[in-house]
Amino acid sequence: MSRLFSSRPGDDGLPGPERRLAVLALILGTLMAVVDTTMINIALPSIARDLEVSAARAVWVTNLFQIVCAAFLLVCASFSEMVSRRRLYVGGLALFVLASLGAALSRSLELLLVFRALQGLGAAATLSIGPSLYRSIFPTRLLGSALGLSALVVAGGYAAGPALGGLMLSVVSWPWLFALHLPLGLCALWLAWRALPRETTRRGGFDGRGALGSVIMLGSFFLAMDTLGHDAPLLQSLAWLLLSFVTGYLFLRRQRRASHPLLPPRLFLEPRFRLAVSASGFAFVGQGLAFVALSFLYQQEMGFSPLHTAWLFTPWPLAIMLVGPVAGRLADRANPSVMASAGLVLLMLGLASLALLPAEAGLADSLWRTALCGIGFGLFQPPNNREIMTSAPRELSTSASGVMSTTRTVGQSLGVALVGVFLAVGSPVQMTLWVGCLACVLSLAASLARMSLAGIAQRYQQSASAGTRSNRSGKSVQ
Prior knowledge:
Blueprint: H1 16-51, H2 55-58, H3 60-71, H4 73-83, H5 85-105, H6 109-137, H7 143-169, H8 175-179, H9 181-195, H10 208-229, H11 234-257, H12 271-301, H13 306-313, H14 315-331, H15 336-355, H16 363-391, H17 397-424, H18 429-477
Helix pairs in contact: 1-3, 1-6, 1-7, 1-9, 3-6, 3-10, 4-5, 4-6, 4-17, 5-6, 5-9, 6-17, 7-14, 7-16, 10-11, 10-17, 12-13, 12-16, 12-17, 12-18, 14-16, 15-16, 15-18, 17-18
């Protein structure tokens, strides 16, 4: 860990001591946003009972947060170029903390949903620019290690959220789950204002029409995925999907003409970036699908209790926490595409082994298969994220960060919706895990194509340098 905060002559990024405070601000901000989702899920029955609403309506306490956060990721990433990432991050944290206080004091579902939407907007502001801030804070030689640390924080948040929520609900009521963000948020606010790098802002306008199109496109997509995953009328889901596709087409047309586009077209001219984003999207489809499918597999097919099911999930994030930082460090020294591809192979084997898991299998037989998935994903994510961030021009880091966050959220949401669709038509839950394997195959194909491109580029450079030496020797002979 001390290596992350060491400085060398000629390093870009922040000096070592300032780096520590800035990273702590990012860690606290990320933890609050990640823990919030899984922690509040545990409290939904309590919220429904205390506010005297149905469980179906209480689910919107989680859904609205996720939809607003996902819909505003690209908008916030672009807006940060006008106000600076430091100000946007601090503003997003402040909004999240104030909305958490409002949620803790809410005594009606309608008021709670308003503050949950504001929390989602604040989370979008911080999560959309987090990876680009890591690139600004750390020198390039340590970027893989830094992103490995980020993967550890996210996995730790997902692992700790349910346990923390259950522990707190055993002694206090659900409003205290929201109040927990206040001390952490105030500490993160002070650190972010003091330590995050100051930077010049972009001169020029903001693509308001593009922002509106992005919000409608992503918001309607997530509403479509939510309705598909909850067995809503098919026509309703198709209507939301149609709105998403039409708005998406208009949004992309707008981006080609806008002077300051939210999604700069030249960002996708780099093949490494396109392929790394594609690999990330398909991998998160597999992970999002597996997280929901395994809940049904363990409880309905194998007869485990909800508590046992929670323990059976634990090896996945724990493995990411252990493997992710190591994979990040290795990605700074070795070919990240090779490591990411190896991780995808392990993830695919883990999902296949879970799909083949017999109904009479015991805890131990289930645990190693889940751990294998976590090891594979931990080996894949930090190197692939490093590829996304380093293949984008530095001046487009914030846009690349927004794309990376949006791809992750879209992939997970699509995976969850696919489970709902397959279960709605009566398919066995094991079938959804095989679909997850297929998503990993597509992700692996994108990753291997990236390796092929790297090999072609290397051979081209070698032949070009050989030709240059040949010309020089010919001239010297003459």
